[in-house]
User: What shape does this take?
Amino acid sequence: MFHMAPGGVMTIRVLALFSLFLAFQAHAASPSSQSSSLHPTLSAALCHAASEDSALAPQMEAMLETGLISYDQAGDVLNLDCQSGSLLERVVAGHHAENLEYLAIDLGLDIDQPQVRMGTRLVSFVAFLEARAAQAEPALKAFINEYLTHFRDAEFNPNLALSMY
Assistant: This one.
């Protein structure tokens, strides 16, 4: 019988990561696996985390630290198919500011590089947000525009201050 110790949540997280690791290893060993594709179990976990504010960063960091994904795949994460659109679309549509900040700032992605799928073409992170704002209902439009305004502020985005020197 499994008993929950005071640190039981951490035990469950470790077990979940271990099972994700085993699934990833099986996927990586298969001849049909591509280096840029993520195992469906990893994709599902990231899509789920994207739909909960502040949940994406710890999920991604745990996967990065254990080697389940690499920083080279971080751009691919933006385009994961999360059933109702891409992972980035899910974060934006849900108004998940912390997750958006993690993707745009903490992962260190080049937000001006075309890496986000819009239809059949790749656009930059910023172009995606601007296009999404143009089509959005007023509340989502306000969320995106406020984010874009703050994003170019060095106090909000410390990466800007670092790149100025």
Q: What stands out?
A: The first helix runs from residue 8 to 29. The chain has a mean pLDDT of 79. The beta strands are 116-118, 121-123. Residues 9-28+38-163 form one domain.
